[in-house]
Amino acid sequence: MLRMTQNDGELDSLVRKRIRALRVAQGWSLEELASRARLSQSTLSRIENGQRRLALDSLVTLARALDTTLDQLVETASDDVVVSPMIDAAHGLMRWPVKGDPGMSVVRQRMTEPPPDNPARMRAHPGREWLVVLSGTAILMLGHRRFRVETNQAAEFPTMLPHAIGAEGGPCEILGIFDRDARRGHQRPEAGADAGADAGVGTGVGTGDGSRA
After folding, report:
1. Model confidence, pTM
2. What is the enclosing helix (H) or strand (E) of 41?
3. Mean pLDDT of the 44-65 span
4. How far apart are CA 44 and CA 32, in angstroms?
C-alpha cells in the first residue's frame, strides 16, 4: 500500500486525476490503458474513480504505461507557481530559472545592434540554445550561414557552432531557453567593452541597447 505523507486525501485525489488526465491526453480509452498496464478495465476505472485504494504495484505499472515515472505521478502540488525573475540591476539583466530542471534558464533580451561582421567575434561553447523572437526581426549568424528570424519564429542550434545574434531594421526582443552549458558559455567575461554583441542571447534582458549578454 502506498503511503501518502502530505495531506493524504488531497494527494490521493490528485494522483487519480493525474492518471485520468494523462490517459485522456494520450487519447486512450480505459480499455487501452488497462491493456498497456496489464490491469483489468474495471480495476483501472475504480482507481480513477476513487473506489479502489492506490497500491504501489499498480501505480508503478501505470506510470510506466503512461510514459512517466512514479515520482512524477505522485508529485505533490506546488504553491510556487508564479516565479519572479532574478535581476542584475547593474547590467539590466533578467533571468528565470526552470524549477523542474535547475540547469535550465529562461532569458529575455532587447537588442538594437546588428550581429558582428567579424567571424572572430562569434562564440562557440558546449550546450544547446532555443530562442523565439517576440518582436522585430533578429539575425542569427551560425558558422558561415546567416538566418533571418522573424517575429514568432524560433531557432534552435548546437552552440559548438560559432554563433552570434543581433537585430535587423530596428529593435528586436528575444526569449531564449539555455541549458546549463550554454548559460555558462554566455557568462564568461568579454574581452572588451564593445564585445557584447558577439555573445548571442545572454542571461537576461538588456534595458539599454540590449546588446550585452
Report:
1. 0.53
2. helix 41-49
3. 90
4. 10
Q: Are 153 and 127 in contact (CB under 8 A)?
A: no
Among residues 165, 160, 203, which one has the least CA distance to residue 184?
203
Quickly count: other Cβ atoms within 10 Å of residue 126's Cβ: 13
Taking alpha carbons only, the member of 137, 140, 147 closest to residue 199 is 140
Q: How far apart are the first and last CA of the chain?
A: 52
Give the helix/strand (H/E) hosting 111: strand 105-111
Could you give the count of Cα atoms lying within 13 Å of 160 in the half-sphere of its Cβ? 2
What grid cell was written down for 32? Answer: 487501452
- The answer on pLDDT for 3 being more than 60 is no
Q: How confident is the model over 75-118, as pLDDT tens digits?
A: 776 556 676 777 766 655 667 777 666 677 888 888 888 998 88
What is the distance between the alpha carbons of residues 83 and 38, in angstroms, rounded to a whole number?
A: 40
Torsion of CA 182, 188, 194, 197, to 10 degrees: 0
**Count of C-beta atoms within a 10 Å radius of residue 79:** 6
Q: Which residue has 492518471 as its cell numbers?
A: 19
Three-state DSSP class for residue 50: coil
